Amino acid sequence: MRRLDLDFFSVTPPDNWASWMLLLAGAALCAEMGYSYFRADDELSTALQVIAANEASLPKDLKTREQAAQNYSAELDRARATISRIATPWDRLFKGIESVDIDSIAVLSLEPDAQAHTLNIRGKARDLAALLTYVARLKETKPFSNVILLNHQFPQDDPQRQVLFSLTAHWAEQ
After folding, report:
1. Is residue 90 within 8 Å of 110, Cβ to Cβ?
2. What does the DSSP 8-state code read for residue 117?
3. How far, in Å, CA of 158 to CA of 160, rounded?
4. Integer distance in angstroms from the first to the last C-alpha of the chain?
5. Rounded CA separation 162/160 (Å)
6. What one-character DSSP code corresponds to residue 84?
7. pTM of the model
8. Could you report the per-residue pLDDT of 34-77, keeping only the tens digit for each?
9. Around 108, how many Cα atoms within 13 Å sit in the side-chain half-sphere?
10. β-pairing, 118-125 with 144-153?
């Protein structure tokens, strides 16, 4: 076997070009990392300034923004309901009801629902036959369709035995 010679006191290490190349590559990598860090730090500070400027222009509180949106939505709903009530074809509805002229019927109230295009009618009839005649004639009258007798009752305290009724009628758009 060959003898192993270890010299721990050698003053001059052997020249190795690979070690110098690794040292140079490490230094270049460190320089690139430093440059990338400073560039990323600048981009971050610019982005934070933009966010701060945008937040300053928005309402301070999320509840304030939500409340403003709810107020706007509620106001919009009220405006739509008002427009719907104004657009109710009162002239056509009154003409249709007046065209069914039965002396023994008294209309007490009219309640339109403009969104559903329905009209609720409450009234009094002298007897049940007059009421059924009124419903049948109202079905044949324009602009009404799908006339339904919702309820009727004979009040016990009424000596004339009149019939209180409630009916609903759909009207068609023109």
Report:
1. no
2. T
3. 5
4. 116
5. 6
6. H
7. 0.52
8. 999 999 999 999 999 988 887 777 666 666 777 778 888 888 88
9. 9
10. unpaired
